[in-house]
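dude i think i finally got it to work??
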Amino acid sequence: MAVIHLTKETFENEVMHSDKKVLIDFWASWCGPCRMVAPLIDEIANEQDAVKVCKVNVDEQPELAQAFGIMSIPTLCVIEGGKVVASAVGARPKADILALIG
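look at this
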């Protein structure tokens, strides 16, 4: 499944009403560590059918970043049943991201 780029308009439907776990990558185009994580996020999106993989550009969607209290990027959040069940800040290897998803 392709990565879904979230906006404040699509967030509720795509994340809060999802019947799957959702991995959200909070990122920005100017962020070096974000660019390191991006290909891993794309790989996971293509490999993991049980997880919905989404991205939030914090520069374009500051309301979503604020709602999650994002202070540093990249930040990865896993949401299940409308609640954050796991999160990690900073670049991570693929194995760590998969472990975060569970």
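The helical segments are 11-16, 32-47, 62-67, 94-101.
im so relieved honestly
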